[in-house]
Amino acid sequence: MTNALPPLHNGHAPFTVQELFREALYAFEEWDAELTEPIVIFEGRVFPIGHVFEAMRQCSDIVPMNIVGAVTERLTKPWEGEGPLDQMTFSTAARVMGVLVRKRLLANGAPDIVAVAERSAERRSRG
């Protein structure tokens, strides 16, 4: 058994993963000042919401308008899409939400995992 979500196929996510993205977005909306990142469950496995957003970073599928609104209301600058009728892809939504998860974790006092990993790699390279 793997801890990975189903892969994208030519930039397209299975519908079940798109639904999981929606669940992760709802979990983000309900996230209080807790230190730990919210989780979602997919096929009996537990995933932090940031993992779901990361898995969708290359997805070219168009996001439904209700999800677009949930993502864009969190932005500090107006969002302008590049597609017809300003369509947003899951890739764009996932990148925005991934940044927001990292910001929330930092604001709640959690260590910046990227910075910790970089420091660890630097220590290993020094010998």
UniProtKB/TrEMBL annotation:
Domain of life: Bacteria
Protein name listed in UniProt: Uncharacterized protein
Provenance organism: Rhizobium grahamii
